[in-house]
Amino acid sequence: MRLLRMSNNTLANEVLLSVENTLRSSPFDFQGARIITGQDEGAYGWITINYLLNNFVQDSSVLNLLPNFRKVETSGALDLGGASTQITFVSNEDIESQDNSLHFRLYGKNYNVYTHSFLCYGKDQALRQQLVKNLPSTENSTIFDPCFNSGYRRNSSISELYSSPCVSEYSTLDGPINFEIKGTGNYHLCKANVQSIFNRTHCPYSQCSFNGVFQPVLQGKFGAFSAFYFVMDFLKLTQEKATLDEVKERIQQHCSRPWDEVKTEFPKIKVKYLSEYCFSGAYIITLLELGYGFNADNWKDISFLGKISGSDAGWTLGYMLNLTNMIPAELPPSPPLSHGVYVGLMVFFSIFLVFIMLTCWLGHRKPRCLQKGII
Ligand SMILES: Nc1ccn([C@@H]2O[C@H](COP(=O)(O)OP(=O)(O)OP(=O)(O)O)[C@@H](O)[C@H]2O)c(=O)n1
């Protein structure tokens, strides 16, 4: 919707109006439809996964005294959509760019959060950028693309290719109107093509991810969801903790398989998704490694998450939690003593009272001989 608004604002408004009309006639308490910002998308994704992972349940002074008390850290959020991708995590460093800085107070604790949304770096738009950047200058009607399995063919057109604002600046009237994309299935060539859409030559801050965007040093664990999960799940890389090299090896193997073989093995998967897993694998590795700076050491900090406790990982739950005030800024008032400590103190004081009464009684009691009048 953010892309559509850029290329055709009237059409974007028409879509919103249509959504509003439909939802207004539903039994829900509909309060309006709007296009959220990339920053919101990052923030709400971060809230969702940390809420579902129970990371906001923080220490109270009593809990702190417990021997097995775990100081809960939040998890960073990595979201890959079709049009944009978001990275969000708590950072102890100075966030040099205001646009990337968020402050939350949740359950009585402050969080300084870094977030950035890269529009045009979702999986579908990145594929488009990669194709455009590597279009041969000749007027060939066939494009050989290493990011598709060999034997794969797809028809496209110049107008379709350049229809997105992510690539319209590269638009050229040269070349054929219609062309055919033919896969050659080569992971290393594909990765080289994908790298060409990441600009790491300029950085106006002390450190950047790519395209001149500030990013502090990566901190803590990360949950990667949406297309990060769909792709890694297809490649069977979400359960086992594979090393970065093993992950690359698996993607390389997949890219080198002939398209016919892939299609026969997975007849139930949509052709659009299936045909793009080679590109998607190479893109995810490049985005995480070259873009965000993950490496062989901190790769283990990334968990690929589809559902958490039965709920989808994504920005929508976080948006709803925020809207309905489900995560209060302050901790709910808790009793000064826990139940266990209260019961323990009651038992102790009861025994103490009985002991005092017994001592008094023994101290004031007359000896038996006095009672009988014998000195
Ligand atoms: N089983 C699936 C489902 C989706 N996808 C891909 O995952 C990406 C993200 O899909 P979706 O969650 O529908 O994202 P969008 O809503 O399009 O993302 P955005 O937030 O960027 O608009 C898309 O490229 C889609 O083709 C996939 O590879 N396999």
UniProtKB/TrEMBL annotation:
It catalyses: GTP + 2 H2O = GMP + 2 phosphate + 2 H(+); a ribonucleoside 5'-triphosphate + H2O = a ribonucleoside 5'-diphosphate + phosphate + H(+); IDP + H2O = IMP + phosphate + H(+); ITP + 2 H2O = IMP + 2 phosphate + 2 H(+). ATP binds at G82, A83, S84, T85, Q86. Its EC number is 3.6.1.5. Its cofactor is Mg(2+); Ca(2+). The keyword Calcium applies. One of its GO terms (cellular component) is caveola. The chain crosses the membrane at residues 273-294, 341-362. The active site is at E41. It comes from the Eukaryota. It is found in: Membrane, Caveola; Membrane. Pfam families: GDA1_CD39. Keywords: ATP-binding, Calcium, Disulfide bond, Glycoprotein, Hydrolase, Magnesium, Membrane, Nucleotide-binding, Transmembrane, Transmembrane helix. It is a multi-pass membrane protein. Its main location: membrane. One of its GO terms (biological process) is nucleoside diphosphate catabolic process. The keyword Membrane applies. Catalyzes the hydrolysis of both di- and triphosphate nucleotides (NDPs and NTPs) and hydrolyze NTPs to nucleotide monophosphates (NMPs) in two distinct successive phosphate-releasing steps, with NDPs as intermediates and participates in the regulation of extracellular levels of nucleotides. By hydrolyzing proinflammatory ATP and platelet-activating ADP to AMP, it blocks platelet aggregation and supports blood flow. Homodimer; disulfide-linked. Belongs to the GDA1/CD39 NTPase family. PANTHER family: ADENOSINE/GUANOSINE DIPHOSPHATASE (PTHR11782), ECTONUCLEOSIDE TRIPHOSPHATE DIPHOSPHOHYDROLASE 1 (PTHR11782:SF32). This is Ectonucleoside triphosphate diphosphohydrolase 1. It comes from Pelobates cultripes.
